[in-house]
């Protein structure tokens, strides 16, 4: 698999992992802007299939109708940066 071109988008795992490696965190609604409609499944795959550990912080945010709902905010702890960088390199190659 080659690096993405202007006609080939990066994979969902690459987009999410790159975002988290920047020090940012995400909840399921924020992940929509990165093209991920099921963030919990993406995090589960990165954790269970690739061995990464993520921080998980419950929070309440408004849904599209302004009502509060519970979500999880995911982050990548600094201790996982080296392993995440190796995985990202493999996923991008």
Description:
It is a single chain. The radius of gyration is 14 Å and the shape is globular. The N and C termini lie close together (6 Å). The chain has helices at 12-21, 28-31, 39-48, 81-92; strands at 55-62, 68-75. It is of the alpha+beta class and 93 residues long. It contains 4 helices and 2 strands; from the N terminus they run H-H-H-E-E-H. It has a single domain (12-92), classed as Orthogonal Bundle (Arc Repressor Mutant, subunit A), CATH 1.10.10. A two-stranded antiparallel ribbon has the order 1-2.
Keywords:
93 residues, alpha+beta, Arc Repressor Mutant, subunit A, 4 helices, 2 strands
Gap between N and C termini: 6 Å
Instruction: Assign the CATH topology.
Output: Arc Repressor Mutant, subunit A
Structural class: alpha+beta
| Beta-strand fraction estimate | 15-25%
Strands in their spatial order, largest beta sheet: 1-2
Estimate the global geometry from the Cα principal axes.
globular
Number of strands: 2
* Topology as a string of helices (H) and strands (E): HHHEEH
| Rg, Cα atoms, Å | 14 Å
- Indicate how many domains the architecture comprises: 1
CATH architecture: Orthogonal Bundle
The main pleated sheet reads as:
2 strands, antiparallel
Overall pLDDT score: 91
Parts with pLDDT < 50 across at least 5 consecutive residues = none
- Counted by DSSP, the helix tally is 4
Residue share in helices?
25-40%
């Amino acid at each position: 698999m080659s690096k993405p071109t202007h006609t080939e988008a990066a994979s969902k795992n690459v987009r999410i992992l790159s975002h988290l490696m920047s020090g940012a965190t995400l909840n399921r609604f924020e992940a929509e802007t990165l093209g991920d409609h099921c963030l919990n499944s993406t995090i589960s795959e990165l954790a269970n299939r690739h061995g990464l550990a993520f921080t998980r912080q419950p929070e309440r945010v408004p849904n599209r109708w302004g009502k509060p709902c519970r979500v999880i905010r995911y982050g990548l702890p600094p201790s996982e940066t080296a392993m995440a960088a190796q995985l990202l390199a493999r996923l991008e190659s």
